[in-house]
Design brief:
The protein has about 900 residues and is α+β, with helices and mostly antiparallel strands. Helix 25 runs parallel beside helix 27. A hairpin with a 5-residue loop joins strand 9 and strand 10. It has a six-stranded antiparallel beta sheet with strand order 1-2-3-4-6-5, covered by helices on one side. Helices cover about 55% and strands about 5% of the residues. Among the domains are: about 140 residues, Phosphorylase Kinase, domain 1 (2-Layer Sandwich); about 190 residues, Orthogonal Bundle (Transferase(Phosphotransferase), domain 1), CATH 1.10.510.
Length: about 900
C-alpha cells in the first residue's frame, strides 16, 4: 500500500484528506455583528429540614430506600423486610426514642425540627414503610395543636401523585400527655430537587419538565384551597424514577375562610425560608397571602435549579436588610446567569417572580401550563409574542408548513417595513427646516437599524427551520422591495445605501449557506455579492473614510474570493483577493473587527498561493502567526480570556500552517500545530464561549470534530493507524452522526458525515481492514448522494462533493480488489467511470480531481488484468 503526500496525489490517486480550507469556509465563519452563524458546546440544596424527609413509598415497588437528605440508597425492599432486616441508614437511634407510636414500629429518627420529630417507621397493616411526624411536647399549646390538627386534615385532602400522601393522623400519649402525630408517605430512593438535577446532569429542557411537574402538583393544592407557603428545593423531592413530590405542608394554610381564623401562625412570625418568600410574605401576615406566593416560590426554585444560583444575595445582610432586598431590589436576570435561558424562559420566570402579585400567574397550574407551552413550542401567555420570539418558537417547534411560514414572514415584513416607509414619507414636510433635516437623518438611521435586523438577524433565526430556504428567499426579496422604495425616497442617503448593501450581502450568504436545508446556490450568491460591491463602491467614492462601508466591501470581496475558489476559478479569485487587499490598507489591527478582516485576507492569500517550501518561514504565514498572537494577547474578555472570534481565528491559522507542513512531509511538526488547535477548540467548547444556544454548541462541536480529523490524518501519515482510527471511530464519527440526526435537513451536517466516512474508509483500507472499509465506503457514497438529493441537484454540480465521491469509489474498488471480489469491483468501476467522465469535462484543469479520474481509469484496466489472470488460473486447473 502506498501512502500519499497531503495535497499531492500519488500514483493511486489518494490525496491528503484534510485541507482545512475545504471544511472551514464562509459558512462556518464568524461575522461581526451578525445575528446568524453565531460561533461555536454548585447548587445549595437548602438547610436541613426535618420535614424534608417525611415521606413514604406507597407504590410497594421494590426500590432502594434512601435518606432524601443524603441520598444514600439501600437495597432493602421496604415492603417485605422482616424485623431483623429493617435497617435503614437514613434513620439513627436517639435516646428516648419510642419503640412504637400507635400502630407503627419505630426504627430510627429521620430528623428533628422546631415543631416536631420525624421518625422512620413501619406500619403493621398494611405492611409498609412510613415517616411518622410527632409534635414536640414542649410546643403543644392550643395554637400549635390547632395548627397540627389542621395540617393533618389539610394533607388528607390532597390526593395527588405529586404530593406526599398522609395515611393516618391521631394523638399519641408518650407519657407526658397526648401529642399529635401523623404517618405520611416515605419516598424510597428520593433526592431533593437540586441534588437530583445535578447528579443526573439534567439539561435545560429536562429541568423545565421536572419543574413543570412540581408546579402542577402545587397547583392541585391550590384547587383544594391550600397554600404551601414554604416551597423550596429542599421541600421538593424527586423519586428514583424521576417524578417530583411536594413535601412539608407543615407551614401551609387553608384559603377557606373558616380555617384562616383557627390556623393563624402569628403576625410577624416568618416561618418560610427567606430567599423563597414573596415580597408580601416577608411581612409575616398570613392573612395577606394567596396562591401567588407559592407561584413566586416556585419561580425562585426554578431559577436556582436552572442556574445553580439564587436571584438575590441576602447572606450577611440580617433580617431587615434581606427583606429590603427582596421587596425592593430587582433580581438578577435569568439570562445574565445563563444565556441559554434568554427569551421566553426568562420571561416566564420574571412574570412568576413579579413583586406585584397581580402580575404573577394565579396558581401553580398556570405556571406549569406556560412552561409546557414553551416546551411544546407554543405561544406563552407571559407576554404578547414579539417578532423575534415568534421566530424562536418556530425554530424550536420545527413543525411549520413552509407556505404558512412564508405568509407569516411576508406579512410581518410588509407591516413593519411599510410602517417605517410611511414614517420616512411623512417627514417630507419637515425637510424645509434644519431641525427637520436632522430628524430625517435620525429616521433614516432608525430605518437602517430596523432593516438590518430584518435582513440579518431574522434570516439568521430562520436558518434552523426545516425546509425553509424558500421562506428566507421570499422574505429577503420582500425586504429588498421595500428597501428599494426607501432608496427612491432617500436618494443618496448613505445609511440606506449601506443597509441595501448589507441586505444584498445577506441574500448572497443565504444562497451560499448549506445550513437549515439551504441548497448552496453559489451562482446566486455571487450575483448578490456583485450587486453589493457596486453599491459599496459608490459609497466609498463619495466618502473614502466610511469605515463601515469599507469593512463590508472587504468582507464581500472575501466572500466572492471563496465562491471563485469553490468554482475552481483561481483567476477570478485572485482579482477579488487583490481588491480586498487594496481596500484593507487603512484597516487598523488594534480594532478587533478590522483585525478579523486582516486575518481573513492573509489566510486567503495562503489558500490561493497553495503550498510553500518552508511554511514556518514563508512571509504570509509569518504575518498570519504574528497577527494571531497579537490578537490573542490584546483582545480579551472580561474574565481575561481571549475573545472567542480571535481564538477561533487563531485556530484557523494554525490549521493552515499545519496543512502546509504536512504537504511538505513534516508530519510531526504539523501534528503539533493541529494538536494546539484541537486543544484550543476543546477548551472553547467546554466553556461554550458564552454561547449556549443550539447553533453555538453545534458549531463548537463541528470545530472540534474537524480538528480531530486533522490530528488523525497526521497520525495516519506517521503510521499510527490504530490510534487514529480509535479517535475517528469512537469519538469523531459518533459526534458527527449525532449532529446530523439533530439537523436532518442541514446539508452541511450531512456533508460532514459523508466526509468522515470517506476518510475512515480510506484509513481502514490502509490499515489492512478491507472488509470494514467496504461497509464504511458504501455508506459514504450513499451519504454523498443524499447530500445531492437534499441540495436538489446532482453531485456532479459541486466540485468538492464530486471529488470526495470519486475518492470513495476508488477506495471501495481497491478494497474489493484486496478481497478478490471482482464482480463488485466491476460494478463500482462502471459507476465511477460514469461520474468521472462528467467531472473531467466540467473541471479539466483541476489537478486533484484529474488524478482521481486517472486512478479510476487505471482500475478499469487492472480489473481486466485480474479477470484474465483468474481465467488463466482456472484453465490451468
Amino acid at each position: 500500500m502506498t501512502h500519499s503526500t497531503p495535497g499531492k496525489p500519488d500514483s493511486n490517486g489518494s490525496e491528503q484528506p484534510f485541507d482545512p480550507d475545504a471544511f472551514e469556509t464562509l459558512d462556518s465563519g464568524i461575522r461581526p455583528n451578525a445575528g446568524h452563524e453565531v460561533p461555536p458546546e454548585t447548587i445549595d440544596p437548602g438547610d436541613f429540614d426535618a420535614d424534608a424527609s417525611a415521606t413514604l413509598d406507597t407504590s410497594m415497588r421494590q426500590r432502594p430506600v434512601a435518606d432524601p437528605m443524603d441520598s444514600q440508597a439501600e437495597t432493602v425492599d421496604p415492603g417485605k423486610q422482616d424485623d431483623d432486616q429493617f435497617e435503614i441508614d437514613s434513620a439513627y437511634n436517639a435516646p428516648g426514642m419510642p419503640a412504637r407510636i400507635a400502630g407503627f414500629m419505630i426504627k430510627g429518627v429521620v430528623g428533628a425540627g422546631g415543631m416536631g420529630t420525624v421518625y422512620l417507621g413501619r406500619q403493621d397493616h398494611p405492611r409498609r414503610t412510613v415517616a411518622v411526624k410527632v409534635m414536640n411536647p414542649g410546643v403543644t399549646n392550643p395554637r400549635a395543636l390547632k395548627r397540627f390538627d389542621f395540617e393533618a386534615q389539610m394533607l388528607a385532602r390532597l390526593q395527588h401523585p405529586g404530593i406526599a400522601q398522609i395515611y393516618e393522623a391521631g394523638t399519641w400519649d408518650d407519657g407526658s400527655g397526648g401529642v399529635p402525630y401523623f404517618a405520611m408517605e416515605y419516598i424510597a430512593g428520593s433526592k431533593v430537587l437540586t441534588d437530583y438535577a445535578n447528579d443526573k446532569k439534567l439539561d435545560v429542557r429536562q429541568k423545565i419538565e421536572l419543574i413543570a411537574d412540581a408546579c402542577e402538583a402545587v397547583g392541585y393544592g391550590h384547587t383544594k384551597g391550600v397554600i404551601h407557603r414554604d416551597l423550596k428545593p429542599g421541600n421538593i423531592l424527586v423519586t428514583s424514577d424521576g417524578h417530583a413530590k411536594i413535601i412539608d405542608f407543615g407551614v401551609a394554610r387553608s384559603t377557606d375562610s373558616d380555617a384562616a381564623a383557627t390556623m393563624a401562625t402569628g403576625v410577624h412570625d416568618i416561618v418560610g425560608t427567606l430567599q423563597y418568600m414573596a415580597p408580601e410574605q416577608c411581612s409575616g401576615d398570613v392573612h395577606d397571602l394567596d396562591s401567588s406566593a407559592d407561584v413566586y416560590a416556585m419561580a425562585v426554585t426554578a431559577y436556582e435549579v436552572l442556574t445553580g444560583k439564587l436571584p438575590y444575595t441576602v447572606s450577611g445582610l440580617g433580617l431587615a436588610g434581606a427583606i429590603k432586598v427582596i421587596t425592593e431590589d430587582a433580581p438578577t436576570p435569568l439570562e445574565s446567569v445563563d444565556s441559554r435561558l434568554r427569551g421566553e424562559v426568562s420571561t416566564i420566570i420574571a412574570k412568576a417572580m413579579s413583586k406585584n402579585r397581580e402580575d404573577r400567574y394565579r396558581t401553580g397550574s398556570e405556571l406549569a401550563d406556560d412552561l409546557r407551552r414553551y416546551l411544546a413550542g407554543d405561544a406563552i401567555v407571559a407576554c404578547p409574542p414579539t417578532l423575534i420570539t415568534t421566530f424562536r418558537r418556530v425554530i424550536r417547534k420545527n413543525r411549520g408548513v413552509v407556505a404558512g411560514i412564508a405568509v407569516m414572514m411576508l406579512l410581518l415584513a410588509a407591516s413593519a417595513i411599510a410602517g417605517v416607509y410611511a414614517l420616512v414619507n411623512s417627514n417630507r414636510a419637515l425637510q424645509a427646516e434644519n431641525t427637520a433635516l436632522e430628524q430625517q437623518a435620525e429616521k433614516h438611521a432608525m430605518v437602517g437599524e430596523l432593516m438590518g435586523f430584518y435582513m440579518r438577524d431574522t434570516v439568521g433565526s430562520l436558518a434552523a427551520i426545516s425546509a425553509s430556504p424558500e421562506v428566507r428567499e421570499h422574505f429577503m426579496a420582500k425586504n429588498m422591495e421595500y428597501l428599494n422604495k426607501l432608496l427612491e425616497e432617500g436618494g443618496d442617503d448613505p445609511v440606506l445605501l449601506r443597509v441595501s448593501a448589507e441586505g444584498l450581502w445577506q441574500m448572497g450568504h443565504n444562497a451560499w449557506s448549506l445550513r437549515g436545508g439551504n441548497r448552496g446556490n453559489v451562482q446566486m450568491a455571487m450575483e448578490r455579492w456583485n450587486e453589493a460591491i457596486v453599491v459599496l463602491e459608490r459609497l466609498l467614492i463619495d466618502n473614502p473614510a466610511d469605515i463601515e462601508s469599507r469593512m463590508l466591501a472587504i468582507e464581500t470581496c472575501n466572500s466572492l474570493f471563496l465562491a471563485a475558489m469553490k468554482n475552481d476559478d483561481r483567476e477570478v479569485a485572485a482579482k477579488w483577493l487583490d481588491k480586498a487587499s487594496q481596500l484593507s490598507t487603512t484597516l487598523q489591527k488594534g480594532e478587533m473587527d478590522q483585525w478579523n478582516l486582516l486575518m481573513a485576507i492573509l489566510r486567503n492569500k495562503a489558500k490561493l498561493r497553495g503550498g510553500s517550501a518552508d511554511p514556518e518561514e514563508d512571509e504570509t504565514n509569518r504575518e498570519m502567526l504574528q497577527l494571531a498572537e497579537f490578537g490573542i494577547k490584546n483582545f480579551k474578555t472580561d474574565d481575561g480570556l481571549p475573545d472567542l472570534r480571535v481564538e477561533r481565528n487563531a485556530t484557523l491559522t494554525w490549521n493552515r500552517i499545519a496543512f502546509e507542513l504536512s504537504t511538505n512531509g513534516m508530519h510531526e511538526k504539523a501534528l503539533e500545530y493541529y494538536q494546539r488547535s484541537l486543544d484550543s477548540r476543546e477548551a472553547m467548547m467546554a466553556g461554550n464561549g458564552g454561547d449556549n444556544s443550539r447553533e453555538g454548541i453545534a458549531m463548537f462541536r463541528r470545530d472540534v470534530n474537524n480538528s480531530t480529523r486533522y490530528v488523525s490524518s497526521e497520525l495516519i501519515f506517521l503510521g499510527r493507524y490504530d490510534e487514529a482510527l480509535d479517535i475517528l471511530e469512537n469519538k469523531t464519527l459518533p459526534s458527527i452522526r449525532q449532529i446530523a440526526r439533530e439537523a436532518p435537513d442541514d446539508i452541511r451536517s450531512l456533508a460532514d458525515l459523508a466526509k468522515i466516512l470517506t476518510e475512515i474508509g480510506e484509513y481502514q483500507l490502509q490499515a489492512g481492514k478491507a472488509d470494514k472499509a467496504i461497509v464504511t465506503l458504501k455508506e459514504s457514497i450513499y451519504s454523498w448522494g443524499l447530500v445531492a438529493a437534499l441540495a436538489d441537484s446532482e453531485i456532479i454540480e459541486d466540485l468538492g462533493s464530486t471529488r470526495e465521491t470519486i475518492r470513495s469509489y476508488g477506495n471501495l474498488i481497491e478494497a474489493y480488489f484486496t478481497l478478490e471480489q471482482l464482480a463488485d469491483a466491476e460494478q463500482s468501476i462502471a459507476d465511477a467511470i460514469e461520474m468521472t467522465g462528467q467531472a473531467a469535462s466540467k473541471w479539466p484543469r483541476n489537478e486533484r480531481l484529474m488524478s482521481l479520474v486517472d486512478r479510476v481509469q487505471k482500475f478499469k484496466y487492472d480489473l481486466q488484468r485480474r479477470k484474465n489472470e483468474k481465467r488463466r488460473q482456472s484453465s490451468g486447473d
